[in-house]
Amino acid sequence: MDYVIGIKDEFNQHVAEALDCQLVELEKHVFPDGELRPRILGETNLKGKKVLLINRTNSGSAYKPNQLLMETLFTVKNLNSLGAKVDLLLPYFPYAMQDKVFRPGEPHAAKYVLELLKSSGVNTLFVVCAHMQREQGTLKFAEGIIDAHSISVFKDLAENLKNYELENPVVIAPDFTSGESADKVAEALGASDSKAIHKKRDLDTNETIINEEDITGLEGLDVIIVDDIAETGGTMAKAIDLCKKRGAGKIICAAVHPVLAGDCLERIKNKGADFIATNTIDSEISKISVEHTLAEYIKKYD
User: Fold this and answer.
1) Which of 14, 142, 254, 291 has the lowest CB atom count within 10 Å?
2) Is residue 190 part of a domain?
3) What is the DSSP string of the chain?
């Protein structure tokens, strides 16, 4: 890798240092009418150079997936016009949760984003704990579209959780499809058990119903609730209520991607649970650094 391209922040600087290459600044500008102008500053003699573009997003009201996507597409096209070979790191993949057509007439949005990235000139795509694939490795969902990789950071999350000095905690996934994630955290922590909750979602109202019978026997035990994405916090909040109902002691909520839409942050904190996340998205709870893990994975494909 010759250069890392991205805004000048600690995250991008740490990745660049771990890859032993220079960070070239990407300036982001939004015009009054909402149009975007991402500009590469400084080094633009990129013919024949291999670059890693990093575009990380913010949480809460600052999370703008469409802006993130258009900034990325424009910059990839721009870098290609300057002669660079472009790899892309999107720590949080926009539209990841639309990984299939749930109802007739809906777009297969995640697939379309992959196609857009490929057509814009992305060589290799790196994402973190993709919603459509939780294990580390080649992103199976993208096969036939683009060379894409999902990088797991659940070990980083588990290492941070060790700071809480919990005794034989139970790790719980608030969604059965996240059960594998809970298993990984439990294994890394040496936890006594991991459990997953089945849920059903009303696609019209977005309301979730969880199966309370999935969680039993928590009397006096500390609990870690682990999920890949904390969006509205609705499912996580219901999991907290259920754990309290089952007699749990201390409850810690841990997410990889803190989207934190609406009142998600307040909703979880108001229930008395600690709430932490990795820094794939910039937020006030993004306390777990994953830059080294990402760089080590990317080095294998440089």
Assistant:
1) 14
2) yes
3) --EEEE-SSHHHHHHHHHTT-EEEEEE--B-TTS-B--EE-S----TT-EEEEE--EE-GGG--HHHHHHHHHHHHHHHHHTT-EEEEEESS-TTTT--S--STT---HHHHHHHHHHHHTEEEEEEES-TT--SSEE-GGGTTT-EEEEE--HHHHHHHHGGG--SSPEEEESSGGGHHHHHHHHHHHT-SEEEE--EEE-TTT--EEE-GGG----TT--EEEEEEEESS-HHHHHHHHHHHHTT--SEEEEEEEE---TTHHHHHHTTT-EEEEETTEE-TTEEE--HHHHHHHHHTT-
One domain, residues 8 and 144? yes
Residue whose tokens read 């070979």:
85
Residues 181 and 142 in one domain: no
Looking at the structure, tell me whether residues 126 and 225 fall in a common domain: no
pLDDT digit string, tens, across residues 49-88: 999 999 999 999 999 999 999 999 999 999 999 999 999 9
> Could you tell me if 174 and 295 lie in one domain?
no
What are the catalytic residues? 200
